[in-house]
Amino acid sequence: MPSINHFQKRSLLIEQLNAEKKVGKTIGFVPTMGALHQGHLSLVEQAKKECDIVVVSIYVNPLQFNNPNDLKNYPRSLANDFSLLSNHGNIIVFCPSFDDVFPNGEEQYTLNVGEIANLLEGHYRPGHFTGVIKVVNALFNLIKPNKAYFGNKDYQQVLIVKKMVQILGQDVKIIACPTHRSKNGLAMSSRNALLSEQEGREAALIYEALKLCKEKINSLSPAELKAEASSLFENGPLKLEYLEIVSADELVPINNWEQKSICCIAAYCGKVRLIDNLMLN
Ligand code: PAF
User: Fold this and answer.
1) What phi and psi values does residue 97 have, to the nearest 5 degrees?
2) What architecture is domain 4-177?
3) Please, are residues 147 and 131 in contact by the beta-carbon 8 Å criterion?
């Protein structure tokens, strides 16, 4: 019978994990902010395949929100999260308080992961990645996982977490997993819970724009493609914040298709800010 082992206190979690590690068990970690969906559950499934013990954290990290209203409105559905996870076998769920994540208060360091933290999401959400790094680093230090699982929908986050691990010399393998999509192509995201039915339909335009980019890569330059895909948003229901065609490693704008490239989009659907991306070549 699958069961969930639920911890709130860091000391109790550490005790349990130390006992598991002592007998040679490997730990897979899925950090989340809750409001779980199929994308998260696919990370859990992947972790279950590759590790003996799976830890899922559910913690809405205030440090990564640059907008207090966004933090206030972020969807929370703990009871449903537990019920979804209980269908996925024996899992350790960690739902900490701020003090359990940061027992010494908010650490004041800023880890320099390079220019990548200032581009795209970093540009439009100042301080966002500093907050992500602080919480992921704190959770890694606490859980000491062998592998940690992240969704490629937050592609820039994946690159930044990989840089953090490299700079800090942390002994954890970062596994990036594919984006899950609804039938209409909308990338699964906790924030989708905030969309009305109509907005959910309208938000499919983001994936339409990404697909257009992929389809036309052989006939248009990156600049032409950016202009054509961006024009899909003109006079439409979504407000485009950015649509960038950039290199897949450093996320800098490209002039030709010689390197691996990705299209990244952020757009507002009503009040809800959505992001998505698609590898183009
Ligand atoms: O991707 C997320 O949900 C969050 O940024 C993460 C990795 C759980 C850190 O709060």
Assistant:
1) -90, 175
2) 3-Layer(aba) Sandwich (3.40)
3) no
- CATH numeric code, 190-274: 3.30.1300.10
Residue 174 CA, ligand 1 centroid: distance in Å: 13
Ligand 1 midpoint to CA 29 (Å): 12
pLDDT, block means (10 residues), the chain with 281 residues: 80 94 97 98 98 98 95 96 91 96 90 97 97 98 98 98 98 98 98 98 98 97 98 96 98 96 98 98 96
The two domains 4-177 and 190-274 share their CATH topology (first three levels equal): no
Nearest by Cα to 248 from 129, 156, 170, 151 = 156
Give the pLDDT score at 215. 97
Indicate the residue type of 133. Answer: I
Ligand 1 pocket test target in 55, 132, 180 with most atoms within 8 Å of CB: 132
Closest atom of ligand 1 relative to the 161 alpha carbon: 7
- For residue 107, the model assigns a pLDDT of 82
Question: Ligand 1, residues 30, 36, 61, 63: which to mutate, most atoms within 8 A of Cβ?
Answer: 61
